[in-house]
């Protein structure tokens, strides 16, 4: 079941999704390149990476490169998520993954994923490209990888 709530002070929706709902977002048969960043509010490297990725979002929001953030926070951090998004001035869409805490769902995202975050997946279905980076991305790295991938 998908549900929404609105951050009234920042007008940012956070969509709560299961894996199958999330996959529907990026498995469309089009030429859009989806960049899906997995983070958590308690992850220091994630919080350092998010402004860099949000700048990429601002620079590309009207292109075929679409960034989304997916929070892996559990319910005890759920109340903190809106304030983190507001504090970091996140403009890209934010999803909260509502899956089991045993991480049995990791292979459904990428078979190589060991669970470290931040992690970023790049998908372009028309070009049959999928890449996965289980490391923080610094300024310019995402653009570099996209160029190497021909995207």
Q: What would your notes on this structure say?
A:
32% of the residues lie in helices and 26% in strands. It has 151 residues and is an alpha/beta fold. It has one domain (3-148): Glutaredoxin (3-Layer(aba) Sandwich), CATH 3.40.30.10. A seven-stranded mixed sheet has the order 1-2-5-4-3-6-7, sandwiched between helices. The longest helix is centred in the middle third of the chain and has 17 residues, at 44-60. The radius of gyration is 14 Å and the shape is globular.
What distinguishing features does this structure have?
alpha/beta; Glutaredoxin; 151 residues; seven-stranded mixed β-sheet
The coarse overall form would be: globular
Named CATH topology: Glutaredoxin
| Tally of DSSP helical segments | 6
What is the CA-CA span between the terminal residues?
A: 33 Å
CA-atom Rg in angstroms? 14 Å
CATH architecture: 3-Layer(aba) Sandwich
* Low-pLDDT windows of residues: 1-11
Tell me the number of strands: 7
CATH superfamily: Glutaredoxin
Strand composition percent: 25-35%
User: How much helical structure, as a percent, in the residues?
Assistant: 25-40%
Which CATH C-level class is it?
Answer: Alpha Beta
Whole-number mean pLDDT:
89
